[in-house]
Structure formats: C-alpha cells, structure tokens
Specification:
single chain, about 230 residues, alpha/beta, two-stranded antiparallel sheet, about 20% strand
Length: about 230
C-alpha cells in the first residue's frame, strides 16, 4: 500500500455507553474477542500502515496501559488531549508530524474487520487518483442500527454533498491530508465544518461500502451486537 500513515480517534467520553464507560474508555470495550481499538489497529496494519497516531482524553491511562501490553511492530504514538478538541481539532492537533502526507483516519466505534480491506484499498486508490479527501460511505439500508438519518448523497463522479434527506452514512473511514485545515483558525472544531465547506466547493469524494454497517452507537446497540 502507498499511504503509510493513519490516525485513530479515541478521545471521546463515551457517554451513550454508560455505565460500561465509567471505568473503561469506549475504544477498549470488547465486541466479541477483541476491543474496538484493537480491531481498528489490526485493519490499519493489514493495510500496510507503519506510523499511527491515536488521540485520547477520557481515561487516557487505560489506553496507554493497553498499548503497552501489545507489540504491533509499527510506530504508535498516543497523544493526550488536555481538553477535548472535537473531531477536526483532534485530527489537526495529532497529525502535525504527518506534514503534507495523506493519511487514513478511523473512528473505532465502527466494528472494523478484514472484510473492509478491499474497500479501503479502493478508497486509497480513489484518493491517489483524484488527490481529494475521500470518505467511505454506506447506504443506510445496510446499517444494523436503523436510527441513522444519513450524512451525504452521491452526485456525479463520486462527489458527495449534503441535502435535506441523505441516503448514505459516514462509516468512520476517510483519507485526507492536512491541507484541508488551511482556512481553519480555531483549535476546537468538528470535521462536519470542514466537510461542509469541501462539499460546497465540490472537493469532497465518497466511496460506497457494501458491508453491513455495525456501529457501536449506544448501550442498546452494543447489547444487540454482543448477542
């Protein structure tokens, strides 16, 4: 694979997963034999990543302790956010050393597995051909959790935009580089702000996933998935 850098977003408070997250951060919650963070790291390693950053805030020490028990054979840096920076701010803060290189970003709330490998390869190819930020999306009909309202619609040539009704959900996988943050002058902000601007400028691409989408959205969904 050509893209060698990646980030995992792991700084959230996991409020919708309480009481499970009172003593354990959400990325360390197990679904089946592995926790969510483990699944994300293993998929990225399968993709050929050799440099990974992970941001953390809530129960930082638990994630640090977990990583110390593992030997993944790649460079992993855990970055502590003293204050929550939201998704966009978290990515901008954690990826400074990536400079102008493209990188994957994964949200570990999705249950990633080896079936996503081919789709992430296609995502990578799309990014390299078009040199534009590219998001992996799934039709909401393919989501286990039917509460998602949708985030985007496809337009021509795989460009995506937001409309009043949206059919596709963001899976939590994207490829970007830091140039998309050039106009941002604040420290704390959501990726939605960046995506909205990119979509308006017709600079945001999507790739469709054909996997059934399992996303640990709340304690009810978690209980269903564990059954």
């Amino acid at each position: 694979m050509i893209i060698k850098k990646a980030m995992i977003l792991a700084a959230g408070l996991g409020k919708r997963m309480r009481p499970l997250t009172e003593k354990i951060p959400k990325p360390l919650i197990k679904v089946g034999p592995k926790n969510l963070l483990e699944r994300s790291i293993e998929l990225l390693i399968k993709m050929g990543i050799d440099e990974l950053v992970i941001n953390s805030h809530y129960l930082f020490q638990e994630i640090d302790n977990f990583l110390k028990t593992k030997n993944y054979g790649i460079s992993i840096t855990l970055i502590k956010e003293e204050e929550l920076l939201d998704t966009g701010g978290g990515i901008l803060n954690a990826t400074k050393k990536f400079e102008n290189n493209p990188f994957f970003v994964l949200n570990p709330d999705t249950i990633w597995n080896k079936n996503y490998y081919e789709e992430l390869k296609i995502l990578e190819n799309s990014y390299l051909v078009n040199n534009k930020p590219t998001l992996l999306l799934v039709d909401k009909n393919n989501s286990h959790d039917k509460s998602f309202k949708g985030d985007f619609n496809f337009t021509e040539n795989n460009y995506i935009k937001r409309e009043e009704k949206n059919q596709y959900i963001f899976t939590g996988a994207q490829i970007i580089n830091r140039s998309i943050f050039e106009s941002i002058k604040k420290k704390t902000f959501s990726m939605n702000e960046v995506w909205n601007q990119l979509a308006k400028e017709k600079k945001l691409l999507g790739q469709e996933s054909n996997q059934t989408f399992f996303h640990v959205n709340n304690i009810k969904v978690y209980d269903e998935l564990n059954k």
